[in-house]
Backbone:
């Protein structure tokens, strides 16, 4: 009996401690003074973004299929709309259509900063053109949204950077650190490292440049509203991005006429391989930065929810198990596996002599392309498979959250809105930022545009658009970021 009473006593003590701990488990209060207001011209920004969207800068793996005159038109637009940028900054065309602007600082001994952007957009999926509320390349501004391909990815970001630099120049601002504006031309394809952003990074490396920090695209500032539990804005700062690898897995067979089939054709055998690959996912573990994200959100919930949230350390195995069952959540904690394409016979009455599937993997930091190939071989019971690496890139390094640049990002967000949650996160897709790892240790991915999650889902999809309401704060952010980051 004493054992039962001891257990009940311990559980009671734990509950009391949890109730008390949850009451005090709140975010640290910021003591920042509000930021001075910044002069911005939203009307000009809207016009410039609308006109930039009208230019079809669509990238393609086959460079012969790219309309390079469209990129030239965009460059001409830049020269017309941002004359001070072109007068005061050195502008170089790198690779096929990438741009490198150099804004010399007054203290060249300080490490420079870089702001990244890409000029290219993805095409509209064939057959969906008429599904758009407004044509994808008309740049329609209806007063509430600007519509079109690139409105979110990422001409909005690119034009905002140029607008901010143009305004700062007109105000006579001079940075202490040199500021680089690095605008690639082929981010939307898995390009060779020597193209676009990779060529810019190689140019900086060849010149002996080591950057203090890099800021590229990544997500947005999201409104988190969950009943009475949570009502905050979340500024997610991407400190790493997943890798990407495409593999073709194949099986060979005798083939022949379909009137005399074997028990299993090559496609039938391949079905078992697919089941092996899909049935043996990579191990899921919660990285420190994901735990940190949950912790920061948890501390901002209402008291009843904090009773659970303050015990994340204890519930971590359970939370991880639940996340594995939810695809979007699972992608945060493990390397994902997606069988996306299949090939077999060229005709319905011919047995396939070779069957193959293409599998796309998105690797967590720490998992390499070589690890993926080893995983395929290990989990497949059929050892006759052929494995061919098609294309990809390694997962990025993880940037620190205690750096000067991360702290400045956090400070700007908190001084703009004292209730804003600033937390690190993992970028699911790819950005140009990873190209700069050889010249920078502090690489961050952040887009200061406040919007609803539903709008983000239009990126690369139908009715991509950006709300006008988020533009002023985004322009102010970039001005403040350049001012604070370029100072000693």
Residues:
């Amino acid at each position: 009996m004493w054992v039962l009473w001891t257990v009940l006593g311990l559980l009671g003590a734990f509950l009391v401690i949890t109730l008390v701990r949850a009451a005090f488990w709140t975010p640290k209060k910021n003591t920042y003074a509000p930021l001075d207001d910044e002069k911005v011209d939203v009307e000009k920004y809207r016009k410039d973004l609308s006109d930039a969207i009208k230019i079809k800068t669509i990238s393609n793996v086959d460079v012969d299929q790219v309309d390079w005159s469209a990129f030239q038109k965009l460059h001409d637009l830049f020269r017309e709309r941002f004359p001070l940028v072109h007068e005061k900054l050195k502008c170089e065309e790198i690779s096929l259509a990438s741009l490198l602007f150099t804004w010399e600082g007054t203290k060249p001994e300080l490490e420079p900063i870089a702001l990244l952007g890409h000029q290219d957009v993805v095409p509209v999926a064939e057959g969906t053109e008429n599904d758009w509320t407004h044509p994808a390349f008309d740049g329609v501004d209806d007063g509430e949204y600007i519509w079109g391909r690139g409105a979110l990815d990422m001409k909005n970001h690119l034009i905002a950077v140029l607008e901010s630099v143009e305004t700062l120049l007109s105000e006579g601002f001079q940075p202490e650190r040199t500021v680089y504006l690095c605008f690639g031309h082929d981010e939307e394809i898995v390009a060779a490292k020597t193209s676009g952003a990779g060529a810019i990074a190689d140019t900086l490396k060849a010149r002996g440049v080591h950057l203090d920090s890099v800021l590229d695209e990544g997500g947005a500032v999201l409104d988190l509203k969950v009943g009475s539990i949570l009502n905050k804005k979340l500024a997610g700062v991407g400190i790493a991005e997943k890798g990407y690898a495409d593999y073709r897995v194949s099986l060979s067979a005798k083939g022949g006429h379909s009137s005399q089939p074997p028990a299993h054709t090559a496609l039938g055998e391949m079905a078992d391989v697919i089941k092996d690959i899909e049935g043996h996912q990579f191990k899921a573990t919660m990285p420190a930065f994901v735990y940190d994200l949950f912790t920061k959100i948890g501390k901002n919930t209402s008291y009843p929810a904090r009773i659970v949230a303050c015990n994340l350390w204890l519930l971590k195995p359970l939370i991880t198990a639940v996340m594995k069952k939810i695809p979007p959540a699972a992608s945060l904690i493990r390397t994902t596996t997606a069988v996306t394409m299949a090939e077999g016979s060229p005709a319905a009455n011919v047995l396939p002599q070779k069957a193959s599937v293409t599998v796309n993997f998105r690797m967590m930091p720490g998992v390499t392309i070589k690890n993926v190939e080893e995983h395929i071989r290990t989990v497949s019971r059929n050892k006759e498979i052929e494995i061919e690496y098609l294309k990809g890139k390694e997962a990025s390094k993880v940037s620190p959250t205690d750096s000067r640049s991360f702290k400045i990002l956090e400070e700007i967000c908190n001084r703009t809105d004292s209730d804003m949650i600033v937390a690190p996160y993992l970028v699911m897709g790819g950005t140009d930022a990873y190209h700069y790892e050889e010249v920078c240790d502090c690489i961050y991915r952040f887009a200061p545009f406040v919007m609803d999650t539903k709008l983000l889902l239009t990126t690369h999809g139908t009715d991509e658009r950006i709300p006008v309401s988020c533009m002023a704060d985004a322009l102010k952010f970039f001005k403040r970021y350049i001012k604070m980051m370029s100072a000693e």
About this structure: The chain has 15 helices and 18 strands. The domain at 242-393 is CATH 3.30.70.360 (Alpha-Beta Plaits). The mean pLDDT is 92. The chain has two domains: 42-223+396-485, 242-393.
